[in-house]
């Protein structure tokens, strides 16, 4: 399904993830943005994004790779991976997105751990992944970080922040999201 | 979307610039990038930035050089230096050169979030503070005069209009309300501002002296006139002549002045040559000229000649809302003059100032604050240092006034007592009374006070 205005979720992990988790995320994304949402699997993250010294993948390089390799149909592609992501000046990032752009990426690597780095329960990991996927896709529509700590668009610097925020956009961000989606539709 | 601010990222590595810009954009900042120092400086010269994130190690111009130049171009924009190679020396150097902070790569996302958030919040608060201060300090200015009162705003408005014309202005107001200051302000706003401002106090001189002072005299005009001299009317040519205490001039001088104002020409004392008047006249008095006209002590025709644009300065007791502003203004002045850090009058001090009736008006307030500034041991002036005790509770130097004494009697006695205390020194006595010398002379004349008393 390469429908116009569609969203594509691409699993680009080195390891495995239960397909049911991805399917549930897909359904939530489709419902939240009211856009046809497709699920695909790629052959892992692009190797050129790997920084061997840091043992982490550059989220910015992954975004570039997504943009250059994405099919012509969907307007948004969200890469989901299990490798740890970074941008050069920071120790890590949970994800990165092009604000009002086409590509976004989310890593489940740190979401799988508790604050003191023990494995987190599966439902918790899934809830976190869903929040971060909606958050990064929110950026691709033009939303920026929200000062309401319960809003999906609030910035998360730790898993505690992710757990603290809700799974919904606050009223202002929701309103803004509809406006931005309308603008995007008009532009296309 | 609310604009959160603009940030300039300066780094020679493209991936750093792009990823950091993207990260900042997610936060809602407008992120701009520059690959090297010269490009960054060119951007800084063109538009303002809220924060600068600068890499330390760059080929050509390094981060410290960018920092130094950026401080010249945008001194208020905080600079955060980023480096992968942390040494104490470079950190110290960066901070010494005015860097706001120093981050060692890679740093925690939370660290950057907090730092950038703190800086933009502080800037927003500063902006808000400035706006609030402006809103609170809604004040009207006219040259060196500042006020918050609507009465004074009307005065300034009228004075500004008057300044543009060359008509005669008559400034009315009690002693110490700032008549001369207003006259100077009108002059400074007028097309004659480049000409001289010549002031003469009509009360301080005898009739003959005032005549030669105003019109000048020729050689031999009177005993001692060994050479000729130009008078104030001539000296003020091309500028403004300020005639202070005009209500106190003698009938003869009133007539002379009327003639000069009518004919716009005059002769020096003892001279025959007619000299054109090329001065704008501003007259001032603390007397009720209309009453003086009614009682026959001031010529009606001269009154109308002078009363072309009358401006009345309200007494300080009628614009008490100006006291905090004036206190701040004078303290800043004294702080500079005395090279002493003076910040404010304490809340209790202001209460005392607000409760006082200020018969000597702004001049009295200035004197009280000057005394307070001298006595103040810290930057805050307290009521004790103001030494302003309300007359009701003040022990009179004469003892309690007799019940039959009128206000005038009390004033006369108080003046005599003050003069005695200061050995009949007019300047010191006037200062102690919170009035100027001219006013004290007036009062001495009016109450017929003699040194023998």
Explain how this protein is built:
The complex is a heterodimer of chains A (188) and B (453). Chain A has 188 residues and is α/β, with parallel strands linked by helices. In chain A, strand 3 and strand 4 form a beta hairpin. In chain A, 37% of the residues lie in helices and 16% in strands. In chain A, the strands form two sheets. Chain A has a five-stranded mixed β-sheet, sandwiched between helices. Chain A has helices at 19-33, 59-69, 122-141, 159-164, 171-187, and strands at 7-11, 37-41, 50-51, 56-58, 76-81, 85-86, 95-97, 103-107. Chain A has one domain (7-187): Collagenase (Catalytic Domain) (3-Layer(aba) Sandwich), CATH 3.40.390. In chain A, helix 1 (19-33) runs parallel beside helix 3 (122-141). The model of chain A has no long low-confidence stretch (mean pLDDT 93). Chain B has 453 residues and is an alpha/beta fold. Chain B has helices spanning 14-26, 37-46, 63-73, 88-96, 109-136, 150-164, 179-189, 207-215, 232-235, 251-263, 289-294, 300-306, 323-338, 347-355, 361-375, 383-386, 407-421, 426-433, 437-446; strands spanning 6-10, 30-34, 51-55, 79-83, 101-104, 140-142, 145-147, 169-172, 197-201, 216-217, 229-230, 240-244, 265-267, 274-276, 280-285, 309-312, 344-345, 380-381. The longest helix of chain B has 28 residues, at 109-136. At the A-B interface, helix 2 of A face helix 1 and helix 5 of B.
What is the compact description of this entry?
Chain A is α/β, with parallel strands linked by helices. In chain A, 37% of the residues lie in helices and 16% in strands. Chain A has a single domain, classed as 3-Layer(aba) Sandwich (Collagenase (Catalytic Domain)).
């Amino acid at each position: 399904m390469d429908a116009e205005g569609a969203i594509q979720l691409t699993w680009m992990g080195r390891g495995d993830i239960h397909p049911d988790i991805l399917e549930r995320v897909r359904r939530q994304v489709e419902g939240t943005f009211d856009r046809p949402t497709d699920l695909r699997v790629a052959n892992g993250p692009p190797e050129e994004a790997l920084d061997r010294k840091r043992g982490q993948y550059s989220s910015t390089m992954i975004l570039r790779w997504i943009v250059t390799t994405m099919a012509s149909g969907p307007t948004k592609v969200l890469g989901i991976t299990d490798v740890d992501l970074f941008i050069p000046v920071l120790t890590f990032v949970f994800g990165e997105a092009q604000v009002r752009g086409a590509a976004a990426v989310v890593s489940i690597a740190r979401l799988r751990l508790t604050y003191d780095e023990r494995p987190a329960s599966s439902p918790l990991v899934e809830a976190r992944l869903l929040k971060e996927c909606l958050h990064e896709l929110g950026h691709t529509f033009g939303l920026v970080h929200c000062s309401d700590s319960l809003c999906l668009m609030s910035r998360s610097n730790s898993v505690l922040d992710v757990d603290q925020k809700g799974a919904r956009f606050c009223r202002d961000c929701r309103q803004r999201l509809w406006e931005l989606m309308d603008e995007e539709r008009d532009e296309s | 979307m609310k604009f959160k601010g603009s940030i300039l990222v300066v780094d020679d590595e493209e991936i750093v610039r792009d990823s950091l810009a993207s990260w900042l954009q997610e936060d809602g900042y407008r992120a701009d990038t520059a690959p090297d120092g010269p490009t960054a400086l060119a951007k800084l010269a063109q538009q303002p930035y809220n924060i600068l994130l600068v890499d330390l190690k760059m080929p050509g111009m390094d981060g410290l050089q960018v920092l130094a130049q950026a401080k010249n171009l945008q001194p208020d924009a905080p600079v955060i230096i980023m480096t992968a190679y942390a040494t104490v020396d470079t950190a110290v150097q960066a901070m010494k050169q005015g860097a706001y902070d120093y981050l060692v790569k890679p740093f925690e996302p939370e660290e950057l979030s907090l730092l950038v958030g703190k800086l933009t919040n502080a800037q927003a608060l500063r902006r808000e503070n400035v706006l609030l201060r402006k809103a609170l300090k809604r004040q009207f200015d006219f040259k060196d005069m500042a006020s918050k009162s609507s009465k004074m705003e009307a005065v300034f408005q009228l004075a500004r209009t008057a300044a543009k014309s060359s008509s005669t202005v008559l400034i009315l107001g009690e002693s110490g309300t700032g008549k001369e200051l207003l006259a100077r302000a009108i002059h400074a706003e007028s097309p004659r501002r480049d000409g001289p401002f010549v002031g003469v106090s009509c009360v301080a001189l005898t009739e003959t002296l005032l005549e030669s002072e105003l019109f000048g005299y020729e050689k031999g005009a009177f005993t001692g006139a060994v050479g000729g001299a130009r008078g104030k009317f001539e000296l003020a040519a091309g500028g403004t002549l300020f005639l202070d205490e005009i209500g106190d001039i003698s009938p003869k001088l009133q007539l002379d002045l009327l003639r000069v104002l009518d004919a716009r020409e005059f002769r020096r004392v003892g001279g025959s040559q007619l000299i054109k008047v090329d001065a704008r006249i501003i007259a001032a008095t603390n007397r009720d000229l209309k009453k003086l006209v009614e009682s026959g002590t001031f010529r009606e025709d001269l009154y109308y000649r002078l009363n072309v644009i009358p401006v009345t300065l309200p007494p300080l007791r009628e614009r008490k809302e100006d006291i905090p502003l004036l206190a701040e203004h004078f303290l800043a002045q004294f702080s500079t003059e005395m090279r002493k850090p003076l910040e404010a009058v304490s809340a209790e001090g202001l209460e005392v100032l607000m409760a006082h009736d200020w018969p000597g008006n702004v001049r009295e307030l200035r004197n009280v604050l000057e005394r307070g500034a001298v006595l103040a041991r810290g930057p805050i002036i307290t009521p004790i240092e103001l030494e302003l005790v309300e007359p009701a509770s003040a022990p009179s130097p004469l003892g309690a006034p007799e019940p039959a004494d009128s206000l005038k009697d009390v004033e006369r006695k108080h003046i005599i007592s003050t003069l005695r205390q200061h050995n009949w020194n007019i300047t010191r006595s006037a200062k102690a009374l919170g009035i100027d010398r001219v006013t004290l002379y007036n009062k001495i004349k009016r109450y017929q006070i003699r040194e023998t008393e």
